[in-house]
## 1
Amino acid sequence: MPQDPHYARKAIGDIAPKLAELTDEVLFGDIWARPGLAPRERSIATVAALIALNRAEQLPFHLRRARDNGLTDEELVELTTHLAFYGGWPVAMSALAVLRQLDDSH
């Protein structure tokens, strides 16, 4: 999934144009592009935060992005298992359900 530089504008620009602009230009155009971490590492950090904070609505997008950034499903499951002990069992189980839904939607 190559990243569309105008993804947020297309997804939410009609209702929240400034948030879409900030998402496209600052978050993905700057923060994700900084050289201090590789995209794979940024995906690990992002998926871990979304799981630990129980932000399941954002998980499908970022799980796909993590795959695109080189993470395997086995690694995503291992990350989720690890987070069960730090973020809680319920959030890990919810994250696995989201990952399963991604696989079922192929």
Note: DSSP finds six helices and no strands in the chain.
## 2
Amino acid sequence: MSQAKKLYLETFGCQMNVSDSEKIVTLMKGMGYQQTQDPVEADLVLLNTCSIRATAEQRVYGHLGKFKSIKKAKPGLIIGVGGCVAQQEGEKLLKKAPFVNLVFGTHNLHLLQGMVAAAEAGKRSSQTDFLDDEKRFDLFPHSEAEGGVTRFVTVMQGCDNFCAYCIVPHVRGREISRSAAKVLEEVRVLAEAGVTEVNLLGQNVNSYASKQPGEPDFPELLRLVAQVDGIERIRFTTSHPKDMSQRLIECFADLPKLAPHIHLPAQSGSDRVLERMNRGYTASQYLAKVAALKEACPTIQFTGDMIVGFPGEDEAAFLETMALMEEVQYADLFSFIYSARPGTKAAEYADDATRAEKQERLERLQAAQKKTTLARNRSFEGTVQKVLVEGLSSSGESLFGRTGGNRGTIFAGDPALAGRVLDVKIVEGLQTLLKGEIVHD
């Protein structure tokens, strides 16, 4: 019996890349590849890349260097690059890194088995064509149903918003939504395999099916998913504030399975900056959505994204961002210094703030958010939370789960409890997680 081939896979970036990597693992298992965490023992190395930040391409080329040395010792090693940097670079990547065997873009996962087979036969290839056919979802495999407590389910791909700073429409393409029937079929298969929580995934789930007459819209899709037996909790990401409808807000009041958490990126608290970003809403309109969500679900937890130092942001605009953060009271916030991406509108803007000024603003923002996060975590002390047990913690010494509000929680218990929703009393709120103890009947 021949020894199984080994796949080493690294994933960078957003949840969409994580979901794509799950599909890659399924595809490669179909070719006899088993995953390994050690690149030295791999027969196939794949990088699933992200291009959202500046110098992403240079980072990928630099990262590939460590695999080049492995390949010198193991000439048969196949190296492939996929994801958003691959979509941007295409055949240039094969020329700049001659030890790379294959490059596959964001619409080309369905070609991966053939590309790997060609690489095994000594052929190099690049596939980065966009697929505009509305049936392209049928070409993409489901990730394996077996195992896991919580899984991503892709409901749409691409984005039509063209925010001035964002590379996503250029590397993921325009919006296309998967049929509700296909989504529900995958959710049912996952539920039958023991999955308890699904996270519906798209670049902008709020505009799901907006270009497909006759399909349910996103609020109705949530209600359909909530009817699937075995699914205890539903999440979704990511939402664009301008497309968040009152009907979607009402789902947080009406659907017990819908987790009381939303990732709602504001990006700035300045109307002038938001207009330059082409975000399609004002700070007051964003805050009105936040207020409506809090009214529908008083326990809801907010996370979001903020960009610091966008071209034209001065101190006054930055203080407006700080004021918006103070009003929302985010549980967590992903914050970054603006970085220009080639091909985006903002790359044409004059950038008059110094790097030192941007860094100082980012540090102030993050220091303020750190205090808010700790205060919010401490506010849970003494409360009983519904925690979905995902398995052992990273230390292996306790169980790890998440509250409905997406607060990571550790507590003592039997690993066999994975997949169960338990009552957990919070005994301590720390900076990055909660500590608790199971409430026994």
Note: The chain has a mean pLDDT of 89.
## 3
Amino acid sequence: MNPASPAVPVSLRRFRPFWLYWLTRVCLTSGFQILTVAIGWQVYSLTGSALDLGLVGLLQFLPRVLLVLVVGSVVDRFDRQRIVTVSLLVQAAVAALLGLGSAHAGFAVSRELIFALSVLIGTCRSFDMPAMQALLPNVVPPALLPPAVAAAASANEAATILAPALGGFLYALGAEFTYGLDLTLYLGGALLLSRLAVRPSEPSQQRMTLDSLLVGVRFIKSRPDILGAISLDLFAVLLGGATALLPIYARDILHTGPWGLGLLRSAPAVGALLMSAYLMRFPIAQRVGRVMFAAVAVFGLATIAFGLSTSFGLSLAALAVLGASDMISVVIRTTFVQLETPDEMRGRVSAVNSLFIGASNQLGEFESGATAALLGTVPAVVAGGVGTLLVAALWMRLFPTLAQRHRLVQGPAADTAG
């Protein structure tokens, strides 16, 4: 079915353009997840430093901060498919370079090379994440957007389940095999994207001025519920995120190898995928504010449980619960943004939203690494979980309308979706 057709499909399952989009997103996310596993294990093997693990996350995050306003304007002014395609090809080149270095094809992978390529990866992610988010409403009609948001999130989680585990197993054979798979995924994603037909959108005609760059910031600021939701996710995951320390847990606490690291990286996505499947079938329709805050509290408790665990099975279970609870806030936040933002400014709003996501993940990895270097690994993770609980309690007081919000979209906001 052509996405430009005025007819609205009855079911997302039969809407072919969305599934091309979904598969592209699987390739993009799988590639990034495999890079994360391989780079994390490689840099820790080279240096044995928790701080260096955190620095990798920080270096991937910094381009998002520096480019956030420019990225949003670029995504609104230029072809979003082309932006993602270029990002996929650049990251394919990064994977090829790391693969050649790991195979000692004339040079070797070093700490400095990993740091430099982490900046390049972060730059690519700065563009491809908001571009993919802004592209979705041009792929599916507004009537299918809520289930499409949950299904698109499931693409990330499906990739995060399979890719890190597969990457970890391949790494045991040699890092070059892991990077070879990564290269294949990025090239496959670019091919799929080239076959995706989308509804044409009118590029923003605003000149790239400081005022136009700040539109996304002002829009989010003018919607207290959206601001509260994305900032809650930012600080909760920033404090509670322990993914940067998984190589330490895998090797020194749980006593597994790269395969164990891959499974640990996949565990949050297992829980998140199951939750996204549930939300596709049973969307959150009532008391969304209370549900979101309860989910953040569960996220904090699961983080504490993981931090204290010395059992591989219990650690996997805690991470799965952590991922399931995080998925709830992801779906709520993304639905807010997509349904309440006009198409001509979706790039700028998505760029700001992407910055919050990046801050909670990559900056959270740096925070975890730095805290672990100061306090020790287990105290750092437990303290992060406690911090998440405190943030949830504080945000309920700072954003009372969000805590009391009954529906995802209410009032005139729903009308802007079209």
Note: The domain at 209-409 is CATH 1.20.1250.20 (Growth Hormone; Chain: A;).
